[in-house]
Design brief:
single chain, about 475 residues, alpha/beta, seven-stranded mixed β-sheet, four-stranded mixed β-sheet
């Protein structure tokens, strides 16, 4: 039976060195020393911001309106839903003024901090000058951002189409692939999530996210899941299933292949090594295009690279992105080559809000912040340390079945039986609720809702320690392992 008590977080010293990670450790240790204990749990480190008093409706009033006027399909986390009314960098604040460390980032969307002053400034300045016009007129905001975005991609990936979301971006990418190749069949992965519109729902491969509507022209290959997959971490064996689908499920020619480098909604599943190069080769031999869905893993979230696909040593034909691109602004994009982009000139393609000056001004500001504050390096340092600490807990606590991911896109899979890999559904919910009470917000994903993904809300100033108790204590990590099952 699950016990509700949380044990005191243990502290462990970290080795010193002359590396950049040691600079992080030194500053985080200082933060740890400044942190005090309260009821056996470390309090948040000092932070130079206090939200203004909240005078709005209560949580109960908001929930009543939500139930009356909003879609019944909308769900919420926690037994007692959280009323978030303020945010600053890595922190969120509820209606009582309580501060929370945001480890969820609005579902991997906030990439350089809540209300980052540079991003907010760009939005406000552009809004005051021109909030909206149309791409039928010239405006510097969209052109400047497209140029900056193209500079972050390899090869001839330098033509940008702006959208409003990741779903829109993936819909457009799939249509481009079908137009360019003259084929209809697209191969996706089981457990994938690419959106919830007509085409992208077809590419999505989890019954949790699919309605009983017509979805045609998509084949779902075996998921190269090193933890639960039938071939373990042998990426080339999984890739043979894609070749089999081409030979026995299509006419021999395909429009394309779409995949995330790390499946986000699917539970932070990093594709098995050597999988993507083999699949890209098979797809191109069948006349198809390779689409990289970077909606969650893009914009330095994985730390080791700016884009998730780069860690696999491949260059896609089309890249889709959203979420982190605007730090919370509704913005998405499709980037491809000039030759492929030509297909949209066969008819009129138009998006009323795609490339809106306010949104693109925000996107450009995000890119500048990532560069100016070395957020990719910082994500790599902090994420590697966090993953190492999480992994070390597996030796002591059987409930942790797997720790995976890169940078600050990490997942912890909880199971009640390591051998059988039985999903720990109730325990996962309990961990989330307990961490919320301690002031740490995380999310969950995967088919069984068993994985506990951790998407840092902001990689800004992680070296000064984003984690309560400092990174010597890492109480967000240590207290998870102290839950007694």
């Amino acid at each position: 039976m699950m016990q509700r008590g949380i044990a005191r977080a243990t502290r462990r010293a970290l080795p010193s060195s002359g590396s950049s990670s040691s600079r992080f450790v030194s500053s985080s240790s200082q933060a740890a020393q400044e942190t005090k204990q309260e009821n056996g749990v470390p309090r948040m480190p000092p932070f130079a911001y206090s939200p203004p008093p909240y005078a709005g409706p209560s949580s109960a009033e908001i929930l009543a309106k939500r139930q009356q006027f909003l879609s019944p399909s909308m769900f919420y986390f926690y037994k007692q839903p959280l009323n978030v009314v303020d945010g600053k960098m890595q922190y969120l604040y509820d209606d009582s003024g309580k501060r929370y460390l945001d480890g969820f980032g609005g579902i991997a969307t906030v990439c350089c901090g809540h209300c980052h002053p540079d991003v907010v400034g760009a939005i406000v300045d552009q809004t005051r000058r021109l909030q909206h016009s149309t791409i039928l007129y010239l405006n510097p905001a969209i052109a400047d951002f497209a140029e900056a975005l193209a500079s972050k991609l390899p090869g001839d990936l330098n033509v940008v189409f702006f959208t409003n979301s990741g779903t829109e971006a993936n819909e457009l990418a799939m249509m481009i692939a079908r137009l360019y190749t003259g084929s209809h069949d697209i191969i996706s992965l089981r457990n994938a999530y690419h959106g919830n519109a007509a085409g992208t729902m077809g590419a999505t491969a989890s019954s949790n996210w699919k309605f009983n509507v017509v979805q045609t022209g998509v084949h779902h290959a075996l998921n190269p899941d090193s933890y639960r997959g039938v071939f373990g971490s042998d990426g080339e064996k999984y890739a043979r299933d894609v070749q089999d689908l081409i030979e026995f499920g299509t006419c021999g020619n395909v429009a394309g292949f779409i995949s995330e480098a790390i499946q986000g909604v699917g539970g932070i599943i990093e594709l098995a090594p050597h999988y993507l190069p083999a699949v890209y080769s098979s797809i191109r031999k069948a006349g198809g295009l390779c689409i990289a869905d970077e909606v969650q893993s893009g914009f330095a979230r994985t730390g080791s690279h700016f884009w998730g696909f780069e860690s696999h040593g491949v260059v896609p034909d089309i890249v889709t992105m959203a979420k982190g691109i605007g730090n919370g602004i509704p913005l998405g994009a499709v980037v491809t080559t000039p030759k492929i982009a030509e297909v949209l000139t066969r008819r009129s393609y138009f998006n009323t809000f795609g490339g809106n000056p306010v949104c693109t001004a925000a996107g450009l500001a995000v890119l500048k912040v990532i560069e100016k504050e070395n957020l990719q390096e910082n994500t790599h340092i902090v994420g590697s340390h966090l993953k190492e600490r999480l992994t070390s807990l597996m030796d002591k606590y059987e409930i942790i079945g797997d720790v995976r991911g890169r940078g600050l896109m990490l997942g912890v899979e909880l199971v009640t039986d390591r051998k059988l890999k039985t999903p720990a559904k109730a325990e996962t919910l309990h961990v989330m609720d307990q961490m919320k009470e301690m002031g740490v917000l995380i999310g969950k994903g995967g088919y069984y809702g068993k994985r506990v993904p951790r998407h840092a809300a902001s990689v800004h100033h992680q070296r000064r320690c984003r984690f309560p108790g400092g990174c010597d204590g890492l109480y967000a990590v240590e207290d998870v392992k102290c839950l007694k099952m």
